[in-house]
Write a structure and sequence with these properties.
Number of helices: 4
Structural class: alpha+beta
Radius of gyration: 20 Å
Signal peptide: 1-18
Number of domains: 1
Helix content: 10-25%
Strand content: 15-25%
Shape: globular
Number of strands: 8
Strand order of the largest sheet: 3-7-6-4-5
Keywords: Signal
């Protein structure tokens, strides 16, 4: 009887911990649709092979006054997907941001993922504040729109490396691994 009681208490304690430890979920944009990353895991020192095989995950940051950790709302009424998200190792200047991926399950030819392939290399961009003051601002929600927005100057040139191929993008060297769930799941 005592063994059964101890076992029951252990099971209840384990169940309580399981319910309390829900995995973190972040929204991401893929081709204009919202998907969800479940329990992302950051690798800050990936192997060269892993990094080379990774697709791009763009982290599009919203500039805020230094030290801002409260949620923000833009003139258009838009609020970032991460508003804020304190990801480990992410500088405070980038905690208000959206995520844009190159692909997701179910996209592409015959229901395949097309360009989608995890893991992802994290690339950071920063919106130009002048764009965000527009009451008609619409966030970038696809890689195609990202390329167009860069060409229009909607992002700040934050990459100061003289050898950089793109002044708007900073490749962090980090890799993110996590499953995606579609908006229809």
């Amino acid at each position: 009887m005592i063994c059964a009681l101890v076992l029951a208490i252990e099971l209840l304690a384990t169940a309580a911990v399981a319910r309390a430890d829900k995995p973190p979920i972040d929204q991401v944009y893929v081709d204009g649709q919202t998907y969800y990353m479940i329990a992302p895991h950051m690798i800050t020192d990936p192997s060269l092979n892993l990094f080379a095989q990774s697709q791009e995950l763009y982290l599009l940051a919203y500039p805020t006054p230094p030290g801002t950790t409260a949620p923000i709302t833009l003139a258009s009424g838009y609020q970032p997907q991460c508003n804020p998200c304190m990801h480990p190792g992410l500088p405070l200047a980038f905690v208000h941001h959206d995520h844009v991926l190159t692909g997701a399950p179910g996209l592409g030819t015959n229901g395949t993922a097309g360009q989608f392939k995890g893991p992802w290399k994290v690339i950071v961009l920063m919106y130009n504040p002048s764009v965000l003051s527009d009451p008609h601002f619409v966030p970038v929600t696809s890689v195609t729109a990202l390329d167009e927005a860069e060409a229009k100057g909607e992002f700040l040139p934050i990459n100061t490396d003289p050898n950089a191929t793109n002044p708007y993008e900073v490749v962090t060297g980090n890799v993110l691994i996590c499953p995606l769930v579609s908006p229809h799941a």
